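Morning run. Coffee first, then this:
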Amino acid sequence: MGLKFPQEFMSRLEAGFSLAAAVTGRFTPDRKRRRGSGSREGFEAHCREFPEWGQRAKELVARNAVLAQNRKSELLTRTYCRRGHLLAGDNIGIKPVNGVPYRRCKLCHRWRETFAPTPMTPRQERRVIEAAEAGLTINQITRGTPSRPAICSFNTLKFRRIANPELDRLIIANARNPLARSQLMRFRIVPANAQFFNLAETRAEIPPFEMQPGDYDWILSLISYAYDYQMRMDIAQDVLEALVRRAIGREQVSGRIVDFISRHRRTVGNPLHDEGLDATLKPGGKKTWVDVISLEQWKAGRD
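And here it is:
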């Protein structure tokens, strides 16, 4: 079966669309979505059925592929971004794409960080809070699940988390996976919230900790028996230290135990922690982390 709208397909190729963009769609420079048309199989079938049309279309596909490659090369040498910002000095960032470092405009990046095409409605915010308290991940909230549709887009949620720090704090606090929580804190959408979850900082609003009989056994019971005995002892001591320092309160221990486990696994026994950047990538290997970082910096400087 060929193309249903061959003229529309041809017009997109003439406008500079690649074959993939003509099939799947793409965003135009003014950020409007142009939907795709047909399929690759339909394109090939139409070319066989109408040879003259097919010859013209394939010439355009080849031309557009060359133009796309030229545009990629220009990314390394252009002096202004597509929005007219000067690509020089502190406004240049490096973003690796498939192992190749490309320059990016930091002003545009900061704009995208806070841009939301549609604001979050009060009903959506209530549903996000319910989903976060139920333990759903950011992906499940913004992309949905087989049994539950998405609540809002990722950008809409991110914009609302910046505008409402309490929502951001609630999402971080309810992240059940320790790696997910550490990632949320790493990106620091609201920097004050990253400080709120700092395990090493004394918080004046938390009352002094008073040790009670059975506290140590209670803390140990919260740590999975899947970990070895010494690791469980070390984590329990870290929790007690945080309680005495007033970094967390007694009522927070059960919800924060995953953070102590995550911190322990990132440091104790981690060669980067023990040996620093002189650690090898693989046990017994020769290449160190210094070699990798130096190579990436050389690539960035070269381009």
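The radius of gyration is 27 Å. Good start to the day.
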